[in-house]
Give the backbone structure.
Amino acid sequence: MKDTVLEVLKEHFGDKDFSDNVHLIDDLGADEFDLVELSVALDSKLDISLDEVKILEVATVADLIKLVEAHVGSN
Amino acid sequence: MLGQIKLVFFFIMLMGAGGGLWYVQHLKSENEILKLNNEKLEGAVESQQAVIEQQLKDIDSIQTINKDLQAKNEKLNADLNVANEKFNKVNASGERRDVGALAVAKPKSIQIIESKREKQRARCFEIAQGSPLTEEEKNATKKSEINAECPNIANPNYTPY
């Protein structure tokens, strides 16, 4: 699961540090549209449907992994 | 006969003295009028100088305001370019952002983003029209803290990275 998230992050942002505490907006330069793009990519790879509100509340890589795990777990 | 001539001369001299006296009085009154006119002119010159000084100050203020507006306009143009780039962002895999497709796939997310941006844009207009910055806006240094629509005018301590 985590590997898939890291793979999607790498495809989107390139070779960067994706440690748990890395902030998607402050450290990786993402904007809200990037979060939605990540959400669409993760939905497609994992055959899930991430919450459209919660994805915008994601701050760090760890938050994103946690959100994906929660969705996969609930599916 | 001599007495009559003396009398004539006396009258002539008396008339001359009277004329002279009248002439001096006339000159004095003219002089007074000229003095008054001169004082009025001096007052007018002083008030004109004050007006000219005020006009020079006004011109300075206008020039300063124009410079500020020009600087603000440049910042707004820079922000507009940044805003436009957001819709054409290319990710690390070379895929160009398609906001339309995102809106179809995740309509609620895009609606939330647009609603937030709309509020930020309204704030940008307020700031552009002279509204003072809040402490939060002044202290914003991280991308997650800024007004994404116009950071150049809303967040003076933010440096893009």
Notes: The radius of gyration of chain A is 11 Å. Chain A touches chain B at residues 10-14, 23, 25-26, 29, 31-37, 39-40, 43, 52-53, 55-56, 59 (CB under 8 Å). DSSP finds three helices and no strands in chain A.
